[in-house]
Amino acid sequence: MKIEEEIKQSAFKSEYHKAFINMLYTASWLELEQSNLFKPFGITLPQYNVLRILRGQHPKPATVSMLIERMLDKTSNASRIVDKLEVKELVTRKQCPNDRRTVDVLITDKGLALLKELDVLDDNNKTGIHNLTEEETIELNRILDKVRQ
Amino acid sequence: MKIEEEIKQSAFKSEYHKAFINMLYTASWLELEQSNLFKPFGITLPQYNVLRILRGQHPKPATVSMLIERMLDKTSNASRIVDKLEVKELVTRKQCPNDRRTVDVLITDKGLALLKELDVLDDNNKTGIHNLTEEETIELNRILDKVRQ
DNA sequence: TGCAAATATATGTACATACATTTAATGTAC
DNA sequence: GTACATTAAATGTATGTACATATATTTGCA
């Protein structure tokens, strides 16, 4: 559906203004789609993203600062997201012996198993971005990188 | 900067997966840019969006349900955003006489004056989306609409 | 050595999101 | 016209974001 209909706005000041609104709206649309997919597993998107970073490091641990550096949203609060994952026993956290300021965060077997389930879900999800052709997807990536130049 | 470098991830599963992450990352980047622009005025993005909808209606009032319908994020809590705006005297709220379940929300002169200031700011902002050519912007809008098909 | 600066993480607070529940008013079926 | 369903908005709670501050540890340098 065209963005004008979605938010019931008849006209935008410019194509640029429309693209700005369209970006925010579509991203939030994609997030909602993804979070609904994950809801039955009791995991939120930020928690999922942290788990994925941890799997990328596994079996090495990650520190909280590494998580912040790699998270999509740099200003979010990695400590508290790890809190939630720890309660669900998807990660462990223990003080690093070399530098006792830092904390080693490790994904557990339970965490790895959960990610495996979610991978399948993700692979089977053919909505959203998958409406595009391969060429359109490449073009979208190029344009987005240019926006952040 | 390419998305791989931004989030320090060397490879994506597919161009589609990369586009998904790129969308969320770039939208959050744009939101941060916009919210920094507005910070000196003590207004958040959702509050700004509600004010804009109210200006679109002015001098007619809007109801809370109309705000929800037109907001970018449909599941957010319009009541509480209106609370914040009311405290700052940017909107007024009073029970509608015809249907006493609904509430008439109206933008004040102070609210209109604030929006006028922000418009100027917005017009002078030539970063982000404005890095694109007009053709790229049109193509971006087309692709985003297709994602939400 | 000793002490200030830097670093890593955690915590506090205001705001927003997501979703369930509550309250009040209205609509509708019988 | 009363009873039940529906609607509009507000409220409660858990999570997350944004940002400031606190605490502990390490580093660096006089």
From TrEMBL, chains A, B:
Protein name listed in UniProt: MarR family transcriptional regulator
Pfam families per record: MarR
Keyword terms: DNA-binding, Transcription, Transcription regulation
Sequence ranges assigned to domain HTH marR-type in this UniProt record: 17-149
Family matches, as Gene3D superfamilies: Winged helix-like DNA-binding domain superfamily/Winged helix DNA-binding domain
Keyword set includes Transcription regulation: yes
PANTHER family, per the entry: TRANSCRIPTIONAL REGULATOR, MARR FAMILY (PTHR33164), TRANSCRIPTIONAL REPRESSOR MPRA (PTHR33164:SF101)
Lineage, broadest ranks: Bacteria, Pseudomonadati, Bacteroidota, Cytophagia, Cytophagales
Organism: Pontibacter populi
